[in-house]
Amino acid sequence: MILGSAFLIILYLILRYIIAWITYLNNLDTRLGDSTWRFTYDYPVIGERDISDLDDKDFVRLRRKKNKTVLLMYSIVLVMFISSMSLLSKFLLFFFS
Q: At residue 27, what are phi and psi to the nearest 5 degrees?
């Protein structure tokens, strides 16, 4: 149980670090929006639509970087959920057996 708790604390710190990166990436361009939990293609972009690198190279690369960071955040949240369920089951087995 101690290792599981330490693992969850480490994952939480990594999650906070990733969320700080997403906030930083959001502040680099106003067209990305302020949302932490959404991918950038989920809402319309103000101005011209960029389909490829040829339209707006810097913004497209920034958007792709933010999408990868959001995907990493979701994967950390999934691992944290599975780990917390495992820790909870160990906790319940310890007290009910």
A: -80, -10
